[in-house]
């Protein structure tokens, strides 16, 4: 096993757990799986292998390396069997604080030598997760976005007792997986990316329900509009670059002033009523009925192409 590889155990075979496993397997890393639901654990290896091979077809992984990772993939029939020799344990069960606390407590006995234990949670504080643990220093949150194996962002959230050196180790592992880790410096409700996405989605929902625009045109307006610019630079840098040769401070002040009428008219509701939920669901289903599998494949090809282009531009 090459020194750059890390022995990983992924606990929880939902969408996020399978995504993490696919990513690590495609990198050739030895991965062990566990889930207390036997049915989920039974079907996970085949899907993970398929998703790792899909990364190869998208140009996101080397075929020989991915096949070596698939050959190393194993299923743990117990938490101890899956995690006993892992260097990095990735917890990816549902957002249930009590269940996660019990799991982190169990890691204390089944994986005393694990270097890092990270939760994929986007809602719960790492300090709460390790409330029952004797070793909170090796715990942190590594929150990805879906699909995990394609979206490069991972929000890394240390707890108050997380070892500072460990934080850098995990960020190094993530970079080895071609992820882009960003460090969240203080706890908030939800993740940074999820909060931004929630704000944009609320306005997108509002515009659709008010009849301003159809679902598919709204999705195009975001994906080839601000989302494209943000993919290259992010919102703050985009405005900074727009200043050109002008004074940046004056330009940004003018932009803030220009945005005030927009902010005043944005959706501000915090709950969507059941009848409006149904209107939205029907609108989305009408827009994409019978096309979801085809669109998913096309989406993945576009994501892979954009990632390649962004990587090439960075190295250039």
Reconstruct the topology from this structure.
Elements: E1 8-11, H1 15-26, E2 31-34, H2 38-57, H3 63-72, E3 74-75, H4 79-83, E4 88-91, H5 97-110, E5 116-119, H6 126-129, E6 139-144, E7 153-158, H7 164-176, E8 180-183, H8 192-209, H9 215-223, H10 226-233, H11 235-242, H12 248-265, H13 274-288, H14 292-315
Parallel strand pairs: 1-2, 1-4, 2-3, 4-5, 5-6, 7-8
Antiparallel strand pairs: 6-7
Main features:
single chain, about 325 residues, alpha/beta, Rossmann fold, N-(1-d-carboxylethyl)-l-norvaline Dehydrogenase, domain 2, 2 domains, eight-stranded mixed sheet, about 10% strand
The low-confidence parts are none
Highest CATH level, the class of the largest domain: Alpha Beta
Tell me what the CATH architecture of the largest domain is.
3-Layer(aba) Sandwich
How are helices and strands ordered from N to C?
EHEHHEHEHEHEEHEHHHHHHH
* Arithmetic mean of pLDDT: 95
How many whole angstroms does the radius of gyration measure? 21 Å
Strand content: 5-15%
Write down how many β-strands occur, each being a DSSP E stretch of 2 or more residues: 8
Helix content: 55-70%
Could you describe the 3D structure shown?
The protein is an alpha/beta fold. The protein has two domains: 176 residues, Rossmann fold, CATH 3.40.50; 124 residues, N-(1-d-carboxylethyl)-l-norvaline Dehydrogenase, domain 2 (Orthogonal Bundle). It is 56% helix and 11% strand. It contains 14 helices and eight strands. The protein has an eight-stranded mixed sheet with strand order 3-2-1-4-5-6-7-8, sandwiched between helices. Helix 1 packs across helix 2 and helix 2 runs antiparallel to helix 3. It is globular. The model has no long low-confidence stretch (mean pLDDT 95).
């Amino acid at each position: 096993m090459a020194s750059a590889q890390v022995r990983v155990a992924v606990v929880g075979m939902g969408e996020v757990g399978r995504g993490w496993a696919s990513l690590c397997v495609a990198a050739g890393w030895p991965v062990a799986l566990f889930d207390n639901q036997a049915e989920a654990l039974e079907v996970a290896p085949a899907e993970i292998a398929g998703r790792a091979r899909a990364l190869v077809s998208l140009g996101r992984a080397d075929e020989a390396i991915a096949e070596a990772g698939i050959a190393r993939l194993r299923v743990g029939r117990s938490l101890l069997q899956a995690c006993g020799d892992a260097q990095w344990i990735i917890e990816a069960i549902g957002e249930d604080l009590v269940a996660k606390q019990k799991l982190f407590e169990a890691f204390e006995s089944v994986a005393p030598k694990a270097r890092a234990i990270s939760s994929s949670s986007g809602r719960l504080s790492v300090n709460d997760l390790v409330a029952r643990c004797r070793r909170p220093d090796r715990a942190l949150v590594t929150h990805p976005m879906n699909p995990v194996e394609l979206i490069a962002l991972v929000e890394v959230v240390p707890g108050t007792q997380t070892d500072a050196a460990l934080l850098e180790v995990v960020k190094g592992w993530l970079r080895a997986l071609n992820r882009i880790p960003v460090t969240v410096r203080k706890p908030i409700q939800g993740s940074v990316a999820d909060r931004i996405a929630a704000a944009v989605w609320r306005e997108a929902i509002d515009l659709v329900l008010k009849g301003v625009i159809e679902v598919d045109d709204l999705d195009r307006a975001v994906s080839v509009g601000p989302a494209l610019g943000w993919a290259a630079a992010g919102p703050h840098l985009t405005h900074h670059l727009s200043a050109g040769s002008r004074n940046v401070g004056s330009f940004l002040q003018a932009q803030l002033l220009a945005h005030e009428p927009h902010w005043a008219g944005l959706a501000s509701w915090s709950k969507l009523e059941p009848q409006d939920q149904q209107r939205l669901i029907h609108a989305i289903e009408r827009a994409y009925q019978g096309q979801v599998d085809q669109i998913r494949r096309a989406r993945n090809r576009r994501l892979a192409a954009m990632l390649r282009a962004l990587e090439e531009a960075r190295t250039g």
